[in-house]
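Quick illustration, no need to memorize.
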Amino acid sequence: MNSLVVYESKFGNTQKVAEAIAKGLGLHGLARVLEVDDPYALTLESVDLLVIGGPTQAHGMSPAMRAYLSAVIPKMPAGTRVVAFDTRLKGPGFLWGSAAKAIAVAFRQAGFVVVTLPESFLVEGMKEPQLVEGEQLRAQAWAVDIGAIVASARQAATV
């Protein structure tokens, strides 16, 4: 399985989550991590799973993430599976919103398969937020489960 994890990170927390996700997906095959503004993040020909995440800003996606989705969705090969994650402040989701939910909606509306529900990984602090303890391990475990789902689906499709 070939996975690509694309992220945007302001304080480094989303990058840490993206790297943990890639580590978990690496148990199922190749997993690369690229920043949202990396030109190679638009190259998806051999990608089986695209994982996209960014910080929640103003209850949703950042402008950079919106721009990336506008550029990547028309280029995505049919059948590419997608997963969305975000980082957001610790507390009730309805207070802070979710970039991941907005990302998942954009892909569903474009007709792509969103493998699982979007996931939020939590940070604490407003000025210099830090990941809540255990979130990197939770992200890695989440990715291991997603990798197993996608690998099973790919295997079933070839039988």
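Residues 2-158 form a domain with the Rossmann fold fold (CATH 3.40.50.360).
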